[in-house]
Amino acid sequence: MTTAARAGAEVERRILLVDDEAGLRRTLSDRLRKEGYGVDTAANGLIASEMARKSDYGLIILDLNLPAKNGLEVCQDLRREGKNVAVLMLTARDAVADKITGLKLGADDYMTKPFESAELMARIEALLRRIKAADAGPEQYVFGDVCVRPRAGQVLRGGRPVRLSAQEFKLLCHFVRHPDVVFSHDELLDAVGGYQATPETRTVDVHVSWLRQKLEPDPHTPIFIVTVYGLGYRFED
Fold it and tell me: Tens of pLDDT along 170-214?
């Protein structure tokens, strides 16, 4: 393994756990370390934002209800700064509106407390596996004035960086790697989802809409990510 590859693998196994419950931080960090992850912890949103700014992580486990700065604000700041780190949000709430808000601001997965640690481990593995897959393949894909660089976690349009959430980035990578293939909503959820979506959330439709707004010449008449009515979506190169 090269030095760069080794460094990438180390980042992938680093997790920032952010929760104001000391008992939960202790229990989860112990479990994560036993599974071979490097774990840093933070008790409020301000500390978490600073740690995420100074260090690289493969995943941030982020509670929604945090003192000083809530989880939604932390997630929003991460995406504004161009951080493509995966974000798994935790909350005691079970409202669909909260889930949609979290996903819209860039969260990649969502778990409602209380939860089983085994399920959390499975979600973490799925998220990191998809990130690793997104980094594989050709160096870049180009369509229109858009350039997608999976290994760099970067998307450029007209030579300028485009800010995408990790979920949007993984969805885009899946599309560009499989041009002219029709994918159903369920297939796209299986390929890049990693979270339990309900029909009300319209997760795939929402993320496709955001990608179109950021990448299509005319989002209302898309020419790259097109709708195949009754079937799903297809990427046309």
Answer: 899 989 988 898 988 888 887 775 544 444 446 788 899 999 999
Reported as a single tens digit per residue, the pLDDT across 85-108 is: 889 988 876 666 776 777 777 788
CATH number at residue 206: 1.10.10.10
Q: For 46-84, b where at least 16 C-beta lie within 10 A, e where not — what string?
A: ebbbebbeeeebbbbbbbbbbeebbbbebbbbbbeeebb
Look at phi and psi of residue 205 and say left if phi exceeds 0, alpha if psi is from -120 to 50, else beta. alpha
Measured CA to CA, the distance from residue 85 to residue 107 in angstroms comes to 10
Q: Which of 113, 134, 155 is the last residue of a domain?
A: 134
CA 31/CA 39 separation, integer angstroms:
10
Q: Looking at residue 199, what is its pLDDT? A: 43
Same domain, 73 and 179: no
The residue from 134, 159, 185 where one domain ends is: 134
Place of tokens 């949000």: 89
More confident residue, 76 or 19: 19
